[in-house]
Amino acid sequence: MLVLNSQYNNKERISRKERTSLEVSITENGPQMTSQVGNSILLKDGNLKLAIPSIELARALFLHNVHLTRTALRPNGLQGMAFIETDKSGTIIRFHKLSDYPLKNLDSKGACEHIRWLLLNRDAKRSFNSIYQHLIEEKTANWKFSFSPPPLKGWGFRLFGEYDQEDTMLFHVEEIKRVKTPYFDYGKKVTISHPKKRKLISVEPSNGNQPEVNRSDPDPQLDFRATPGTQRKRDIVSEEGFRFICDSDDEVKVLPGNDQRRVTPTVNMNEEPKSDISGVGHASDGGSAQELDWAINRDDCGEPDVPEEPKEVAPTSNFHIFEKVIKRLMMLPEYEHQSTQCLAMPKPDNGSLIYINKFTQEPRTYHCAYFYYQQIPLVIIEVDISDISAKHKLGSRLFAFRESGNKGLKYVMKACSEKGVHWDPEINDEYCSIVMGIKHPFKTKMVDGDSVLRTTSEYEIAWIEALHRAVQRSVTQLS
């Protein structure tokens, strides 16, 4: 998190604006230089000399998060974090049960590739473990960070800094923004095993009462005096912009882990989250703050986070009712039906399990009806939540997407999954020119002051009328 000449606003790091950007390919490793400020490593790109502070080079190569930093300052280094198993089928990187390396990091492709390089490349391991060796060999009262870098010939870097005022062929590096390793052949396929990795299966509560939790503060304030608690969630902050690119043919995978059945609570979306704080350092039993988990090379910023394509699945009984209602709606004047589909909810990136249907243990389905009304393209979406507590309210939605209907649908439904199967107003507004809620009709009607159950036909007519009113309101809204 600490970078030369940076300023900080709570958890945001602000880089100096007046600096030069440089793309280099290393042709020669140089010596280590010592000054009153600290130690630096001299590298060359042809005749251009690059002076990189040792701490900045180590940050870009190794110290991507607090957990790797702690590991670097421990006597057993990487051996205390994970070990390697190799057989005929491939290589497995197994994290120790007591390792504090968080499972969440392994959601990042970049972080997984970095761990593979760090643990399987001998030069990387040797260089990483040299951080502790230099620490214990330091004889001065004021510690100047130092380590032995790996051979860097052939490596690519994107650097920020400034040219020396007297020597125009000397560039003083302030920050490293991108690292690209030379090609490395890992041989057999590589997978990662983490002891906390589980395949979560949502089950019904034994007492029939679905637990409900309030939303947590998505951006707690950093308080250096606060102590993180072991029972609190982590405040995950991933700085954007930095990339560590490993040149290799194969992708590293994370093993799925054992099944774990648990009751999934519903999230109360009506209550505003209470303000919270996060602290730094190891969590303890007596702590009350969230633990700050700040990292680079975890946002996969170079690869657009494009949601998966909508997947058509076998229709459910609820879909047949929806399909029947849509067919009757399309018989009204000025409607032109395009298609009606039964699709699977996309998997969220935040680990929420509400997108899984408790009865089928498969992604829950949602139903899409594409049509034109008065030549305006519209979509009605109905999500099947028949397996969830009656407290969970969703309702149908009528959308008109701003651009491609397929693109808008992907982002809207991904956001819905990540909100615990609730509509996300911000995403809806971003991708849609029309967003209209449609309440389901009541199952009953009033007859002579008494509540009487509607027949199937009466319910369908009431639903058609509700949909038609929403369509008419949306067209009026556009005009």
Brief summary of the model shown:
The chain is an alpha/beta fold and 479 residues long. Helix content is 21%, strand content 33%. The protein folds into two domains: 1-300, no CATH class; 311-478, no CATH class.
The rounded Rg comes to 28 Å
Helical proportion, percent range: 10-25%
Q: What is the total number of structural domains?
A: 2
Contiguous uncertain segments of 5+ residues: none
Helix/strand-derived class?
alpha/beta
The number of distinct β-strands equals 29
**Rough outline:** elongated
Q: Termini separation (Å)?
A: 51 Å
| Main β sheet profile | 7 strands, mixed
Supply the number of helical segments.
Answer: 8
The fraction of residues assigned to DSSP E strands is 25-35%
| Arithmetic mean pLDDT | 88
How would you portray this structure in words?
- 21% of the residues lie in helices and 33% in strands.
- 28% of the residues are buried.
- Helix 3 packs across helix 4 and helix 5 packs across helix 8.
- Strand 9 and strand 10 form a beta hairpin.
- The radius of gyration is 28 Å and the shape is elongated.
- The protein starts with 6 loop residues before the first strand and ends with a helix.
- It has two domains: 300 residues, no CATH class; 168 residues, no CATH class.
- The strands form eight sheets. Strands 3, 4, 5, 6, 9, 10 and 16 form a seven-stranded mixed beta sheet that branches. A six-stranded antiparallel beta sheet has the order 22-23-24-25-26-27.
- The longest helix has 23 residues.
- It has 479 residues and is of the alpha/beta class.
- The protein contains eight helices and 29 strands.
